[in-house]
Every structure is written in structure tokens, then in C-alpha cells.
Amino acid sequence: MGGEIPEELISRPVLFEGLTDVWRAFWALNGRRLYSEGIPGSIPLSELKVYLELFGADFKFFDMNDTKEREEFFLLFAALDDEFMGIQLQKLKEKHDRRNDKTRN
Prior knowledge:
By secondary structure, the protein is mainly alpha-helical. It is 60% helix and 4% strand.
């Protein structure tokens, strides 16, 4: 039962407590993302707006009635969405490159 702890668990990123509202919103809305020819687009702002109207009052770390906090939330959400899209695009590129390598051989 003992054994070593996998490196993935040791070096996993830690989500700062104040970012849990952003993290939850991002994953709740990730499925609402639009795709075009298999390429992910940003999560529509209209989806985020509805989410904030429904659940923003329940946030622990952001006051959605405060303009500056709402802006900070949006900037963090957009940065997370941009990072996600970058990772997905990189995966698509690698898949495309592998497929091209197979057809050349």
C-alpha cells in the first residue's frame, strides 16, 4: 500500500483560494464554448454574463456589485480561457503534424 508518491501529485499546481470562483465559472462554462471546424473559440461573453447573473452573488472572493472586482474577475477568466485555447490549439497542431508525418512515410 505504501509506495512512492507520483511526481504529478508532488508537483501539481496549487489553486489560490481567491481564484476558486474563476476556476468554477470557467469549468461550468467550458462546454458552452463555440467551435469552428474543430478549432475552439472563446467562451461567449453572453454565457459569462448569464452565469454571473445567476451565480455571481454566491461568490466567496469577488463582489460582483463592485466594478473593479467584476473587471478583475473578467480579466482572470479571459486569461484562463486564452490559456485553455492555446493548449487546445497546440494539441491540434501536434495531431495534424503527426498525421502529416504518417502520410509522408
